[in-house]
């Protein structure tokens, strides 16, 4: 104990990944999202470059962006599926998410302020939903996206029950 | 389960109150100030024969009426543990907040308020969304405001603050114990804080712009600039620089912090300051989750530092009310920080370093942009886009970057004490952030591929107060997990990897 009490334990400590993967359909949801983005680049590029003719002979900018995004369509969904994981215990929620930069978040259930279930337009197509947990800190909001709709609903009610077990205003 | 109906007259309902009547003087004056451009325009562009004088008078009278109406439209009450505030002429706003959510009470009095014995009262709640949580009662009598504060920040202070009626608003009540007060010598730190440095830097930028305007034309005769004129310009620039860099920040420091006093009251920390507009902030002591010691490089070199509170109820953007000490000598800041925290060790103890990988990242991140710039500038010069003498700036930039990198390595560190978590990072802007471990409400571990390759991560401890989090940059992953595991018992421990798994990876 004392000032340097974390010294002794520092050796070999690591977090394991959260227990559960998100729904396999999340890959197709993310892919659909990337395709929409690709379409935006192509249509926007054509309008700016061909229709308004702002780019002149620099249309390769549009083609380059579109090619990069086309690669993202086939890479990012699978990387995301590999990375995105979640777990809820009796006292805490633990998630892992990201693509380039990977973030692991741990939040104690006793500090939960709200639990939201969101179904976006694209995620509805794949019968998916996301669960968002907010705490009193704006940087501690946890979002688990790409969950099966039923899993999300069950998780939300489970979290609500567990969060209510402990009192306090979450600050 | 039968609950009383939400609507309908409740038993203990209190009558609505208005702001102090003296606001009937303040509001029209303020309204005229707000509408001043319009009034001026009306008289400037009016016909000279005064034929549209009625219109001009209407433009002048309208703001006064507007101000008066604003007074009548505002009412508030404290009822059943809630503070309710109703404002607005056209867009009626009705806001209410639970009294036990009020964490800070701020008194601000402009010179006009002070003459009339009034003060504006701002109440900060713990709501994290920016600007939403604050309730402002602009214009209560000083005594009424004091009384209200003791009702709001309930605690043993309620009875003790009685003798405040006679004291000036700028001074704390005599019941408190003074932790620190202004030493006019601190004004020398004014030019060294980040805000103090902005003005002279912008002047330098302007002069460089001016120089490039003249320089690029390379034809001084065109501007008929003889040596006398150039000398005059140089002289004026030096004087202007001196005024902007030294005189203005020192004067600004003294105006903002005149009569500064940090006081320990039974239930709150109270900070009062200001020469013309006086301001007194009360921080609920229970809600002070930690402190942040600002030690930006120039201030640090001069032996100074700043102190602010990490406290719930203070909005993200208006961090003015979190100031515990303005730029002051390091010894005073450390003493006050230890006083506010209740312990000494998080303030003065040596921090644990983040190791060589983190140090390497400080150096690469500082030097690579400069080297990139050097290459770009070299090519541009070779192609004739830039004058050759500009290349002389590159070694200077390189030295500056190296100094900053060296200092960033030196300052980077973390520490976990019995009760507090300490993170420090930065150089030109550098903060030693100290957070009570029981105020941590979550952990974020973030790492990009570069960091993962060398086993580093950014560790974010989230909290409800201040800027909502403190961050340790490039902390070794093992140390990050150890800190999280130790600081909040039983939270991260359930997600630790089995020792066998760690060996295989």
Explained architecture:
- The complex is a heterodimer of chains A (about 170) and B (about 500).
- Helices cover about 40% and strands about 25% of the residues of chain A.
- Chain A has four helices and seven strands, in the order E-H-H-E-E-E-E-H-E-E-H.
- In chain A, a hairpin with a 6-residue loop joins strand 6 and strand 7 (about 140-150).
- The longest helix of chain A is centred in the first third of the chain and has 26 residues, at about 25-50.
- Chain B has three domains: about 100-160 and about 175-180 and about 260-335, no CATH class; about 185-255; about 355-500, no CATH class.
- Chain B is built from 16 helices and 19 strands.
- Chain B has helices at about 25-35, 35-45, 55-75, 110-115, 140-150, 155-160, 195-215, 225-255, 295-300, 330-340, 345-350, 355-380, 395-410, 450-455, 475-485, 500-505, and strands at about 75-80, 80-85, 95-100, 100-110, 120-125, 135-140, 175-180, 260-265, 270-275, 280-285, 290-295, 305-310, 325-330, 415, 420-425, 430-435, 440-445, 455-460, 470-475.
- Chain B has a seven-stranded antiparallel sheet. Chain B has a six-stranded antiparallel sheet with strand order 13-12-11-16-15-14, with helices on both faces.
- In chain B, strand 8 and strand 9 (about 270-275) form a beta hairpin.
- In chain B, about 35% of the residues are buried.
- Classes of the chains: A alpha+beta (about 170), B alpha+beta (about 500).
- Strand 4 of chain A pairs antiparallel with strand 17 of chain B.
């Amino acid at each position: 104990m004392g000032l340097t009490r974390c010294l002794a334990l520092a050796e070999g400590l690591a977090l394991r990944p959260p227990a559960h993967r998100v729904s396999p359909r999340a890959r197709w949801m993310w892919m659909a999202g990337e395709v929409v983005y690709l379409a935006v680049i192509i249509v926007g590029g054509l309008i700016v470059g061909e229709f308004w003719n702002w780019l002149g002979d620099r249309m390769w900018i549009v083609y380059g962006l579109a090619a990069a995004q086309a690669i993202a369509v086939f890479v990012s969904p699978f990387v995301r599926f590999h990375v995105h994981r979640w777990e809820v215990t009796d006292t805490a929620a633990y998630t892992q998410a990201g693509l380039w930069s990977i973030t692991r978040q741990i939040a104690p259930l006793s500090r939960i302020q709200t639990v939201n279930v969101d179904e976006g337009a694209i995620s509805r197509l794949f019968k998916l939903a996301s669960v968002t947990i907010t705490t009193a800190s704006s940087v501690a909001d946890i979002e688990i996206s790409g969950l099966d709709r039923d899993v999300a609903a069950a998780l939300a009610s489970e979290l609500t029950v567990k969060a209510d077990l402990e009192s306090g205003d979450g600050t | 389960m039968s609950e009383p109906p939400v609507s309908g007259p409740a038993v203990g309902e209190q009558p609505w109150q208005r702001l102090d009547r003296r606001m009937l003087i303040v509001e029209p004056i303020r309204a005229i100030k707000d509408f001043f451009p319009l009034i001026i325009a009306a008289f400037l562009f009016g016909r000279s024969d005064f034929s549209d004088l009625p219109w001009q008078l209407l433009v002048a009278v309208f703001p006064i009426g507007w101000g008066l109406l604003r007074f009548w439209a505002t009412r508030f009450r404290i009822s059943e543990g809630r503070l309710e505030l109703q404002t607005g002429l056209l867009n009626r706003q009705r806001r209410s907040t639970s009294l036990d959510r009020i964490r800070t009470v701020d008194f601000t009095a402009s010179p006009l308020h002070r003459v009339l014995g009034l003060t504006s009262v701002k109440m900060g709640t713990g709501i994290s969304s920016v600007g939403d949580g604050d309730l402002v009662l602009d214009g209560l009598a000083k005594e009424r405001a004091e009384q209200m504060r003791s009702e709001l920040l309930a605690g043993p202070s309620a009875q003790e603050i009685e003798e405040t009626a006679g004291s000036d608003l700028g001074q704390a009540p005599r019941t408190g114990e003074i932790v620190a007060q202004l030493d006019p010598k601190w004004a020398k730190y004014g030019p060294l804080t980040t805000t103090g440095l902005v003005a002279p830097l912008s002047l330098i930028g302007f002069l460089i712009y001016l120089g490039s305007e003249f320089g690029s034309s390379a034809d001084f005769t065109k501007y008929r600039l003889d040596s006398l004129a150039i000398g005059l310009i140089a002289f004026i620039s030096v004087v202007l620089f001196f005024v902007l860099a030294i005189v203005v920040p020192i004067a600004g420091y003294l105006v903002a912090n005149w009569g500064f006093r940090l006081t320990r009251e039974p239930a709150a920390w109270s900070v009062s300051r200001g020469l013309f507009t006086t301001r007194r902030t009360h921080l609920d002591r229970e809600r002070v989750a930690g402190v942040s010691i600002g030690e930006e490089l120039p201030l640090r070199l001069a032996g100074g530092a700043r102190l602010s509170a990490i406290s719930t109820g203070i909005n993200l953007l208006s961090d003015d009310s979190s100031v515990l000490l303005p730029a002051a000598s390091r010894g005073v800041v450390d003493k006050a920080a230890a006083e506010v925290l209740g312990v000494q060790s998080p303030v003065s103890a040596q921090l644990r370093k983040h190791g060589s990988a983190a140090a390497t990242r400080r150096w690469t991140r500082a030097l690579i942009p400069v080297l990139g710039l050097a290459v770009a500038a070299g090519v541009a010069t070779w192609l004739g886009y830039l004058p050759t003498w500009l290349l002389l700036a590159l070694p200077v930039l390189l030295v500056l970057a190296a100094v900053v990198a060296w200092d960033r390595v030196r300052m980077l560190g973390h520490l976990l004490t019995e009760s507090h978590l300490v993170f420090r990072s930065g150089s030109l802007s550098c903060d030693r952030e100290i957070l009570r471990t029981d105020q941590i409400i979550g952990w974020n571990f973030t790492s990009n591929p570069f960091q993962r390759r060398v086993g580093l991560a950014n560790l974010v401890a989230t909290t409800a107060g201040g800027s909502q989090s403190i961050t340790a940059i490039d902390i070794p992953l093992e140390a990050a997990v150890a800190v999280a595991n130790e600081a909040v018992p039983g939270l991260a421990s359930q997600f630790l990897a089995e020792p066998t798994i760690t060996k295989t990876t």
